[in-house]
Amino acid sequence: MAGEWREAALGDVIELKRGYDLPQQNRQPGTVPIVSSSGVTDYHSEAMVEGPGVVTGRYGTLGQVFFIEQNFWPLNTTLYVRDFKGNHPRFVSYFLRGLDFMAYSDKAAVPGLNRNHLHQACVCVPVDSGEQRAIAHILGTLDDKIELNQRMSETLEGMARALFKSWFVDFDPVRARADGRDPGLPKPLAKLFPVRLVDSELGEIPEGWEVGCFGDLGEMLRDQENPFDSPDTAFRHFSIPAFDDGQWPRDELGESIKSLKFRVSSDVILLSKLNPEIDRVWLVDVRPNDRAVCSTEFLVLRPRSPVGRTFAYCLARAPVFRQGIESLVTGTSKSHQRAQAGSILGLRVVRPRTALVEAFERMAGSLLERCLECRRESRTLTALRDVLLPKLISGELRVKDGARFIEAGA
Asked: In this structure, are residues 54 and 96 in contact, taking their beta carbons and an 8 Å threshold?
């Protein structure tokens, strides 16, 4: 009957099955997603399961649930839904997120799940397929917009970094002018580029440009704060784990941050000195009322005029600069190698003419600002989704007349 929810064992709602082994040497180039317990990690030429599908971790990483629209290959560290038993696949992906997978772990040193134990989990689902579709539609619309924002952000940042590489690494406009070719830029802008390259300690660079230190382009700030001294204050915490988890700072009370941090203002970039083979450069988004701090594993860099955040960020992410940082590492432990701050600031870099830096800031700065807007919107949408999800999949918040709701939204 429409509107009813039923309690049942998970195995009566869906059937889970263990994924399939696929050694690295057997993988062939293709477009089929290979899904591990942490999500899509590679691609292959052949699929084992038809999409849409739902996958969760069986061994190692537990608790994450992935909805895969196309045909895919689930690895043997996962469980995938072999039979949805008439339930809506995307709805299943959401209601599984509300399951306490750790309660069904074998409690070994490396967490693992037995699908037969998991099948015994008690769940509650709506009987009406229309209500299932409506819930999936609401949450899926939010997730789709979040994913679109992510792709848009990556594209815009890629454009800014490509422009930086063309102008300040490959010197494409200079080479074009030297060869008598049109650099493809407005004439006033093209004239800002020299017409030939000259030798320098860094190899050939445009005539009239200089070689200096990275520290000439940015000031390192060392303002410290102990959030634990303000236990009831909300801090925006820029940490290494937060960077790795989508570059979203975590909002935490001071009482939960138990070590000294650096203060973070809106006009800086963060550059990690820990394990520099991992590209951790953060274009922070700090609003006027934020109380923001970061891990002391980051260098807090404020660009020096005429350099702005866009130029400094693109330089810090340029492969040639990353290679320079990697050459500075100290420490024998692979997981705790560091580059010293003074050595990073001493790296030799090319210093273009002021007019070109300012032109780049105008053109590329708007691209990166749009990136931040996309991330801001996604942060709001994610918070909304995370509030709605448990209420919708538990029945606390109901979608009346699901079929009509779907038709109205189509």
From this structure: yes
Question: Residue 393 corresponds to which tokens in the numbers above?
Answer: 């999949």
- pLDDT value at residue 410: 46
CA quadruple 259, 260, 265, 266: dihedral, nearest 10: -30
The CA distance from 402 to 61, in Å, is 34
Total-model pTM: 0.86
d(CA 262, CA 257) in angstroms, rounded, equals 12
Contact criterion met (CB below 8 Å) for 35 and 75: yes
pLDDT tens readout for residues 294-344: 999 999 999 999 999 999 999 999 999 999 999 998 766 666 788 999 999
- Helix residue ranges, H only, 105-215: 115-118, 129-164, 172-178, 187-190
Each residue of 394-410: pLDDT tens digit?
888 887 654 455 555 54
In whole angstroms, give the CA distance from residue 58 to residue 13: 19
Nearest Cα residue to 393 out of 80, 143, 132, 142:
132
Question: Strand 78-83 to strand 73-74: parallel, antiparallel, or no bridges (unpaired)?
Answer: unpaired
Q: Output the six-digit token pair for 369.
A: 């600002």
Distance (Å, rounded) from C-alpha 218 to C-alpha 309?
9
Helices (H), 179-263: 187-190, 240-244
